[in-house]
Amino acid sequence: MKTRFKEFNPKKFSFHKDPVLVLEDFWSKEERDTFLAAMAQAEWKKRSEIQATDLAFPNCGDWLKAQIAPTEGSVLLNRMALPCIADYIESFPRIKQRHMGFSYYSYGAGDCLSTHDDTDEQYARMDAVPGQTPQSLPPQRRIAVVSYFHHEWNPDWGGELIVYDSRKKKDGQVRLEVSYCLEPKPGSIVFFTVPRFHRVCRVDPLANEHRRMSIAGWFMTEHYS
Asked: Does the keyword section mention Methyltransferase (predicted)?
């Protein structure tokens, strides 16, 4: 489903019926300014400096990642408190704990993210919570989120989010078909259920110094064995 936020009824939407939700004009300019100011103060790490992502996403440029401060994190979670998210999360059985994990991301010219479904163990363990042993299973990602905070983006600059439907062929191979090709439209937010194959297209050199500024992460659940 793709719609403007002011026209969206979260009480009538269900992720069980429609696994992808795109809301345009979710963030006001003032809200984006607040997050961009916080991003300017954040401590960024390059993709190549983060071992898990360096192994999982080679040849994807050197995009940046940073932690969200508690103040901005609270604002983010309050704005995303949609009943359709809670309804989907609570539909899973034997939930032990609920988790959330979100970060800032900055993509410049040459940066991308190769196709994946958010379940690969070699980077899913980044979601491990304090107290878990190395042998513990990480929380299971249930809903992925990405939202855009830059104020300008031109179609020539690339950086689209591609979301796929997957179909298994008779020979057992999985075939991917594009279901959404989404430009990183300022102020928009995208939710989709996990697992779901997706990728971020490479930011074109035509973007020059413009950067694709986003927040991305997951709503997750931990379960009793």
From this structure: no
CA distance 137 to 129: 10
Condensed to tens digits (0 to 9), the pLDDT of residues 33-53 reads 999 999 999 999 999 999 989
Residue whose structure tokens are 């979601």: 127
The pLDDT, as a whole number, for residue 85 is 98
What is the per-residue pLDDT for 167?
87
Query: Listing from the earlier edge strand, what are the strands of the sheet with 2-4?
Result: 2-4, 20-24, 189-193, 140-148, 212-223, 95-107, 64-67, 45-46
pLDDT at 129 over 70: no
Give the single-character DSSP code of 175: E
Kindly state the average pLDDT of the residues 110-137.
70
Strand, coil or helix: 28: coil
CA distances from 159 to 29, 121, 149, 196 (A): 21, 25, 13, 18
The Cα–Cα gap between 15 and 3 comes to 15
* Ranges of H-type helices in 116-219: 121-124
Decide which of 2.60.120.620, 2.130.10.10, 3.40.50.300, 3.60.110.10 is the CATH code for 2-223: 2.60.120.620
Q: Could you tell me the two tokens for 18?
A: 């429609």
Indicate yes or no: pTM above 0.85: yes
Average pLDDT, the chain: 93
**Using CA atoms, how far apart are residues 108 and 207, in angstroms rounded to an integer?**
8
DSSP label of 205 = G
Task: Quote the CA–CA distance of 24 and 112 in Å, as a whole number.
Answer: 22
Measure the CA–CA gap between 157 and 210, rounded to whole angstroms: 9
